[in-house]
Design goal:
This protein is an all-alpha fold. The chain folds into two domains: 89 residues; 116 residues, no CATH class. It contains ten helices and two strands, in the order ααααααββαααα. The chain has a two-stranded antiparallel sheet. Helix 1 runs antiparallel to helix 2, helix 7 crosses helix 9 and helix 8 packs across helix 9. The radius of gyration is 25 Å and the shape is elongated. The relative contact order is 0.08.
């Protein structure tokens, strides 16, 4: 490992001496890439965004080799730290998207309160990712055709499936949807009402059938019970 790190340090130092888009820099970073990947020491995981984060890490390595300090850490540790930082950002962004979906599922009468900014990511967000993926698959496949039959103003293209897919996180603004379907001002104004009245109930029905909303309601009830207990304790004191 020491021999490998010495070679990597040498390549990183040499790359730093050449201009950003020079062949010499690219050759040395390519050799760093080959040696690191061959070593099998780099952090690995099975997340869907791992490849994107890995690519961003190598781009950073190529663009900023001068930021590496051999007196602080080894090269692979330096790369690992940046890779994990990118993965964490992807994970946090995905978590916020999933929370937006859960808020939609829990909302009533189309009144959506976006509480994403007040939430912190839990250690394990896989259940939330599963909910989002299951809902996305259901909307895409529309197994019984109900979504496609839910049509806005005799416009088959503007149906429940099309609208739900566009409003799932990251949601498309209503103005963009209206422009996409070339709606007039009156139609653009009525489209969100149609979605809340006809499409959200279908989304909620699916969520109920899968047990998604029940889990949320239980969580909310637990929160209310805790709040009540805290209030009683304050009164008692």
């Amino acid at each position: 490992m020491n021999e490998l790190n010495q070679k990597l340090c040498q390549l990183i130092a040499e790359a730093s001496q050449y201009p950003l888009k020079s062949l010499e820099r690219q050759q040395r970073i390519s050799e760093v890439h080959r040696l690191v990947m061959k070593s099998g020491k780099l952090w690995r995981e099975g997340s869907s965004y791992y490849t994107d984060a890995l690519q961003e890490m190598w781009e950073y390595c190529c663009q900023h080799p001068e930021t590496y300090d051999p007196t602080v850490k080894q090269v692979i540790t330096w790369l690992d730290d940046y890779l994990k930082k990118r993965l964490r950002r992807y994970r946090d962004a995905r978590y916020r998207q999933q929370q937006r979906l859960l808020v939609v599922l829990e909302s009533e009468k189309g009144k959506i309160t976006d509480a994403v900014d007040t939430l912190s990511a839990p250690p394990d967000i896989q259940p939330t990712l599963d909910i989002w993926q299951a809902t996305l698959d259901w909307a895409r496949t529309d197994p019984d055709g109900t979504l496609r039959r839910t049509i806005f103003r005799k416009r088959p293209a503007i149906n429940g499936r099309a609208l739900i897919l566009r409003r799932l996180p990251p949601d498309t603004p209503w103005a963009d949807i209206a422009a996409e379907f070339k709606l007039n001002p009156a139609e653009a104004k009525d489209l969100p009402k149609f979605y809340h009245r006809k499409c959200l109930p279908l989304l909620r029905k699916f969520a109920l059938s899968q047990g998604f909303i029940e889990e949320l309601n239980n969580r909310g009830q637990a929160g209310r019970q805790k709040k009540t207990q805290t209030s009683r304790m304050r009164k008692a004191s």
